[in-house]
Model the fold of this input.
Amino acid sequence: MTVTGVAVVGAGVIAATHLKVVQARPDTELVAVVDPVTSAAEALADAAVAAGGRRPAVFASLQEALTGTDIGLVAITTPSFTHADLALTALDAGCHVVVEKPVDTDLVRGRRLLARTAQAAEKGQVVSVMTQNRFAPAVTAVREAIDKGRFGQLTSATGTLAWWRDDAYYASAGWRGTWEFDGGGALMNQGVHTVDVMLSLLGRPVTVSGVARMVGHSDLLVEDVAAAIVTFESGAVATLLATTAAFPENSTRIQVHGTKGSAYLQDGMLEFFHADDAHPGDAPRSWGRAGDQAAREVEAVDLLPDRGQPFPLSDSSVAHARQYEDVFDAIRTGRTPAASVEDGVLALAVITAVYVSSVLGRPVAVADVLAGEHDDVPFRVDHRQMNTPSGE
Done:
């Protein structure tokens, strides 16, 4: 078996999940940790040893690691605004790339990476944006039902992320809640997964009408509440809400409705599933509550591809493991990964469209945002100026 050397770039909180997944795979080995903060990099290297692996080399920059180590795949877990540029560096070195969400905070950089990814694909290089929630068994079950037409014509959807982050959270790191480093607030940082899952289920978005405000915090540059109406090519209409001002914190919920069925996802679990073909003959309809049809739908997809066995990890890292499985299958077969840079750029465009629409006060076309027609709109506003009922 060929073992791919993996470098993790960025030794923050999420890096530990990548380390765990890499060490659980028989075909990967963590060979390098990159972080300019030496103590953080050394701590992650120590964690690799404690988990039973060999100690990876430690570097202050990705360029140093690429020069000094045999690396086949680079996992980028740095602050969001660095993602695209680091991915370009890895691609230039001939590596495959996994980049944490979002693909970047700036569409100009995102477009640059997308163009380079197309060139890299011709050389067999794979780039995937880590949007692991779309690989959760419950989401996979709903997507397969939609693809097979089991819900009929999709008509509508809702996506809600209602979390709580206090002022201390934003003050705990200089990059949190800033346009420069975080690229936005509740929608860009916390809500991007909800946006990505909605897009993976509903398809191509057409227009966005949005509002972004800072309402529940005292000194925050970015929004803590964002809401939008999104229309899709299929004709479906969706509402989106992301907030970090919902005390004491509530669930993340996505509902999808069609003419023949519906599904409710809550915190990654399939809470409700109904499709006409799930109730043959005169069988009573339980309306899909957890424990019956919903559970059966999830059980049908909760396996490793072509292996007929559960994933080896049993905690929050499972979704990351499923995405890594997809990445390596894409490498083996030469196909595009299921969470591509194009997907990541589209999610970034929808989020940017919400911000642009909020500033312009009118709906905007996603295609226009993707094409750069709104790049000059000053949507990175100081939301402290809008923290009153009359603030516009």
